[in-house]
Design goal:
This protein is an alpha/beta fold. The chain has one domain (about 1-200): Glycerol-3-phosphate (1)-acyltransferase (3-Layer(aba) Sandwich). It contains eight helices and seven strands. Helix 5 (about 115-120) crosses helix 8 (about 170-190) and helix 7 (about 160-165) runs antiparallel to helix 8. The chain is globular and about 50 Å long.
């Protein structure tokens, strides 16, 4: 669907490990982002969604079937963290969005510390991903998708070894700072994924 209707272009998909645990961290501009990124991968992946979506049994069954992990969007429950780490322990890949919510203007937002916490505690590699065109195609300002050209660009895996080593012996206050520093490094890596020449031709 994405190739036919949106002329989707994928760059460096080979940078995503085919085996083992991996966190896929992407910018978030549209509801289209999760299925778009998942469709670009050569392996099965897992997604995150707010736990309130699981209240209805039929909907819950569908979400379970497509590998969606329920999380507390307000961060008041550790269940989501445990669910993600358990998934990674099973050598799954998990897509998450460091910004926490869709962009209001298409620009990158600062990352939440939660992605840093997951990256540090899981010790899985983090692959930064940047999507181009989804805001123009189906951002918050649009009621219906528009057939704009989409691009998905993968970065090199990040290990954050220095921060992980420091976190093992850091006190509580420093650990919180480490989580935010890890999140900021991941967001910087996403920002550095600049568009290719044909990424400027959205909708052409």
């Amino acid at each position: 669907m994405f190739k036919v209707l949106f002329d989707c272009r994928i760059y460096h998909a080979d940078r995503v490990p085919l085996n083992g645990p991996v966190l896929l961290a992407a910018n978030h501009a549209s509801f289209m982002d999760p299925p778009l990124i998942g469709s670009c991968l050569n392996r099965e992946t897992h997604y995150l969604a707010r736990n309130t979506l699981f209240r209805f049994p039929i909907f819950k069954n569908i979400l379970d079937y497509i590998n969606v992990i329920p999380v507390d969007r307000n961060g008041r429950s550790p269940k989501g963290l445990r669910a993600v780490t358990n998934s990674l322990k099973k050598n799954h890949s998990v897509i998450l969005f460091p910004e926490g919510t869709r962009s209001h203007d298409g620009k990158l937002q600062r990352a939440k510390s939660g992605v840093g916490l997951l990256a540090i505690k899981s010790e899985a590699p983090v692959v930064p991903i940047r999507v181009f065109g989804t805001f123009e195609s189906y951002g918050r300002h649009l009621k219906w998708p528009r057939p704009k050209r989409l691009h998905v660009k993968m970065g090199n895996p990040m290990w954050l070894n220095d921060l992980r080593t420091e976190a093992r012996t850091a006190d509580k206050e420093r650990t919180k700072q480490i989580y935010q520093e890890a999140a900021d490094q991941i967001m910087t890596a996403i920002d550095k994924l600049t568009p290719n020449a044909d990424c400027k031709t959205f909708g052409n």
